[in-house]
């Protein structure tokens, strides 16, 4: 004989059978995972991937979306979009809206999160719920309700200002081109304020409480704690939260459409409303033209996403070096 123990030979087969059984169980588990993911993959492909691919294809066509005839026009739609002053007006309104909303949301939510994160703050759980409650409400319903809230004749905002003596007559907040965009910014910040607040509360939970206790022993005041402990440790989160807020601010179609519809005088016509009106609301729908505008706006969002990725990596590197 070769000298190999018989028990070693006899034990190899059970081990191979056990390994084979484990592999079959793993394969069955993986198969079940893919089966559960299949409905999501199918729906995502139908309602997200296919429309994206279709918008790129339609952007090269002259098509109203109804007739069977589709005329290939190449880059003519892109040339027309870039030469349209209303496209650049919508782009300017979108950027202005973002520049107004993002700093207010980020820094106001930071200050409130610091207050709610303090152990001395009473009813902190109640206030967290109250500020987050608007997030779960339907945006379109919020927009419709806000039309009544800011009504110049019977809205509670104007009635309250008139009763307090701050106004002699009601202000048409949504009907004046000077006040419409700031008003929608205020409603947008109120609507999604809770999301940014939760981000900051989660970031504050990463700061060890021992640091504040040590600082209090050294007679450091609240301002010194904020500048020496809180703010330096929150810098990586500031980048991430700002970029997340920036990206979410670019998606304001439902609120803007229900509150102002892009008016007055195109003062609140963001890019999404510009695309919507070209595709569906105009007298002669132009799906190819609207698709070209959507592709250009999508490329802008992709650039923001790449900027977000670079910012997140920089924030992660900043955290690891501390």
Automatic annotation (TrEMBL):
Any one of the GO BP annotations: transmembrane transport
Broad class of where this protein is predominantly found: membrane
Compartments (UniProt record): Cell membrane
Pfam family, one: BPD_transp_1
Record's bilayer topology term: Multi-pass membrane protein
GO cellular component: plasma membrane
Keywords: Cell membrane, Membrane, Sugar transport, Transmembrane, Transmembrane helix, Transport
SUPFAM superfamilies: MetI-like
Residue intervals of the ABC transmembrane type-1 domain: 91-308
TM regions (residue ranges): 31-53, 95-117, 129-150, 180-202, 223-246, 289-312
Signal peptide: none
PROSITE patterns: ABC_TM1
Family label: Belongs to the binding-protein-dependent transport system permease family.
Name of the protein in question: Multiple sugar transport system permease protein
Organism: Microlunatus parietis
């Amino acid at each position: 004989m070769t000298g190999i123990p018989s028990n070693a030979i006899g034990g190899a087969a059970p081990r191979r059978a056990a390994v084979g059984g484990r592999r079959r169980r793993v394969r069955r588990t993986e198969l079940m995972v893919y089966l559960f993911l299949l409905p999501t993959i199918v729906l995502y492909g139908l309602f997200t991937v296919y429309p994206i691919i279709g918008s790129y294809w339609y952007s090269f066509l002259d098509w109203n979306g109804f007739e069977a005839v589709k005329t290939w026009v190449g880059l003519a739609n892109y040339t027309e979009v870039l030469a349209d002053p209303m496209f650049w007006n919508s782009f300017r309104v979108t950027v202005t809206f973002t520049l107004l909303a993002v700093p207010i949301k980020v820094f106001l939510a930071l200050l409130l999160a610091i207050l709610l994160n303090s152990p001395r703050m009473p009813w902190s759980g109640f206030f967290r719920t109250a500020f987050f409650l608007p997030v779960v409400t339907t945006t379109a319903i919020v927009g419709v309700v806000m039309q009544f809230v800011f009504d110049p004749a019977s809205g509670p905002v104007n009635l309250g200002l008139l009763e307090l003596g701050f106004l002699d007559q009601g202000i048409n907040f949504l009907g004046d081109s000077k006040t419409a965009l700031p008003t929608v910014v205020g409603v947008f910040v109120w609507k999604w304020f809770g999301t940014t607040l939760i981000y900051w509360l989660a970031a504050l939970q990463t700061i060890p409480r021992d640091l504040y206790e040590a600082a209090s022993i050294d007679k450091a005041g609240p301002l010194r704690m904020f500048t020496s402990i809180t703010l330096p440790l929150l810098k990586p989160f500031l980048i991430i939260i700002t970029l997340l807020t920036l990206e979410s601010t670019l998606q304001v179609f439902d609120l803007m459409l229900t509150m102002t519809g892009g008016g007055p005088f195109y003062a609140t016509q963001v890019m999404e409303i510009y695309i919507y009106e070209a595709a569906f609301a105009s007298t002669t729908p132009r799906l190819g033209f609207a698709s070209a505008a959507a592709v250009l706006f999508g490329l802008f969002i992709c650039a923001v996403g790449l900027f977000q990725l670079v910012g997140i990596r920089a924030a992660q590197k900043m955290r690891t070096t501390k």
